[in-house]
Structures are given as C-alpha cells and as structure tokens.
Amino acid sequence: MKKIFVYGGNKVNGDVKISGSKNSSLSIIISSLLSNEDILIKNIPNIKDINVLLKILKLLGSKINFINSNLYINNKNINKNIIPLYLSKLIRSSINIIPSILLRFGEVKISFPGGCNFCKRPIDLHIKVFKDFNIKIINLNKKYIELKMFKKITNKKIYIKKISVGVTLNAIFLSVLSYGKFIINNVSTEPEVIDTINFLNTIGANINIINNTLIIYGVKKLYGGVYKVLSDRIETGTFLLSCVLNKGSLYCLNTNNKYLTKIIDVLKISGANIKTGNDYIYISMYKKHKPVTFSSNVYPEFPTDLQPIFTNLNIINNNKISYITENIFFNRFSHVNELINMGANIKILSNFKILCTGVNNIFGKTIYAKDLRCSMSLILAGTYAIGQSVIIDKGDYIDRGYENIFYKLKSIGINILYFNYF
Ligand code: EPZ
After folding, report:
1. CATH number for the domain running over 2-19+231-420
2. Helices and strands: H and E segment counts in the chain
C-alpha cells in the first residue's frame, strides 16, 4: 500500500512531458491480438494497468518487449483461451480481450472485468453485443464469464443502446475479421476509440466512421505495422489544472489541444491564459481562479475522467456557488466526502449533480483514495490545502494511470512524497 504526503502552498513552474494515453494504449494493445505479425506501438505509458495487460498477454503466449515507451508485440503464438482470472479481474479493459480469443479458439473463459469501482459498472451492453454476433453465453456469474462462438457471422447491422467506449471496441473487434459489411450505430467517438480505429486501419482493417455510425468491411487478415499512440488528454488536463490551482506557469510537452477543446474552455473561464502549439500547451495563472459550473458527457463534451479532478476548481472561492453534473457514470463522486473532510463545502444534490459553495481554505487531513481519478483529485487538493495532507489507503491507485507521477509533480514544484507500507 502507498501512503502519499502532499504539502500545500507551492507555485507551479517549468515543463512536464505528457505520456501516451492509458486508455488508447490499452485498447490498441488489445486490438493487436487480431494480428499475427510484428507490431511496434510507440508512446505507451509504463503504468500499472498496462503492465497487468502485458502480463496477461505474455501468459497467453504473446511475444512482448516493452522498452522506453516502445512496445514490440507478436501474437502468432497465442495458445490459451482461459484468461488468468486473477489478472483479468484487475482491469476493466480485460473484457475487450474476448473477441480476439473467440475468433482464434471459438471459446473463452475470463473473469468479470475489474477496474475503478467508483460506481456500478454493468456489462449488460457487452452481453447484448456478444449475442448480436451469435456468441453463446455458457456461463456468466460474478466471478467469470464463459462464451462460445460457433461460426463467424456475415453482414450485421447493430445498434448500441447506450454510448459506451468498451462496447464500441468489442463490436469493432468482432467485425474487422468477419465476413461482409457491418453497420454499428450509436458508437462512442471518444478520441481513444478513434485512435484504435486508426491503428487497426494502419494494419489492414477497413473501418469507416460517419458521425456516430461505423461501417466496417470484414477483411481476411490483419498485418504488422508501426503506430504512435496519442497523448493522454486526461493527464494533460490534470497538469494544466495544477497550474490554475496553485498559480505559476507550465509547458505541457508531447501533447496538443486537438482533443481538449472543452477542457481548455473551462480553464479559460476560470481565468487561465493558454497558448497552444502542435506539440505543446502553455498555461499561466497569476490571479485567483474563478469557480466554473460544468457537466461531463461523451466527447466532444467535458470528459468524465476529469470531473473528479476539476472539482478542485470550485472549492476555494469565498461563498461563490457552482454546480458539477456527471452525465456518464452513476454517482461518480467518491472524491466528494474526502474533500469535505478537508473543509470543502459540497452538497450531493443527486446521483448526477453536486453543488459547491466556495470556502476560504481547506486543511491537510488524513483522507482516503478510492480509485484512480479520485486519488489524483485528492493529490491536487493537497497542493492548495494549508498544512499537510496525507492520502493513505490504496494511494497506489495513482500508479494505475499516471506514469512517473511523483517525479513529474515534484519537477514542476509540487511538494509531494510517498512511502510504501505493508
Ligand atoms: C472507458 O470505460 C474508460 N476506461 C473510462 O476511463 C472512461 O471513464 C469511460 O470509458 C467513459 O469514457 C478504459 O478505456 C479502460 P463506458 P468503459 O462503457 O468502457 C455504461 C479511467 O479512469 N455501461 O464508456 O468501461 C457505464 O456504466 C477510466 O481511465 C452500461 O450500462 O466505460 C457508463 O454509465 C474510468 N453497460 C456508460 O455506459 C455496459 O455493458 C459509459 O461507460 C457498459 C457500459
């Protein structure tokens, strides 16, 4: 277990190199399972969730070499269709391994997916898509899922009832190597999904997107290739926010504003000055930031993964009122009680909305990380709290999604340290 200490009050200055996108990397690595040729994927972050996925693939028989953000992978020797349950239950995206294993072996056994448990995360829409592709559910319980595919389907038109990243990915993975034409309606167009589509088309897939509809022509096989994963827009937004909360100036390198329009809009409303280039974003803040009322929703709206982190914008501003609405996940407010413990004035109005009333200060306290984005929210709260904030109990959540995070935060002036305890 990791105990994290943050000492508030420092300004932010300097520059930070943004890593590759966690969620893009996970889905692109998984989509490489559809090919048996040599593939090089660049800009992969060395984080816990990636290492769990690579461990799974190695156990299935993949040949893997992961050095300095470059992942060399060849999946031709995959020879197992039982995904190690103790590993696949650790990450949400393990559910996206199912299609390629079914296409190889006709059957698969895998744990119920894991991932951050900030709320109930059902898999009913995944099950619906599997059934749409004539996949038989042999076993489905809280522990594991067993599925069988008797033959590939040809020509299918499906509608996904609710926009979902993971379900869209599974529909894509089930279509690219099947026969005929597949029309998938109401898909997710999150940048990480588009990045995965671009990767698959680089190695021979035929995927076209028109608004929220995918038209996929099945191909016989996929090939090898080289692909660079897009930068992590959630990490970029996190560091930009750290400058607004603590004042100062910051260059975020190896990133750009292509997928950050709404995020930058919110930061500008809070009073930040922002300049962007094709591989950097510069931010400066020399005055007190303003609170911002905002809502999360599917892309291109404000991303749900930054909602817990941007809550910090609305904590310290003398009695000013602001609202935050979370439109993707039910009750994604695991950070709220911890911020209240530090002195924030937040009221949960419903499972989708909170009311923030600004206070003069919050204070260092022992608080508890509950999931990845909650832990980052609390770390940033510690940067502007008076006195010492201790974040304990699974502080190692942070390692799931942020590469070298302690080094990066310290390098821009944040006073943070941690130690592991057992
Ligand atoms: C992906 O999760 C991301 N994870 C999440 O990032 C991200 O918050 C989420 O997409 C939304 O953008 C990865 O890519 C590994 P969804 P996913 O299916 O695919 C409901 C992070 O911190 N739903 O798009 O699991 C679901 O409950 C993580 O990096 C069903 O109801 O999310 C939610 O309300 C957190 N039934 C909505 O759809 C299903 O079968 C969107 O979730 C599946 C989803």
Report:
1. 3.65.10.10
2. 13, 23
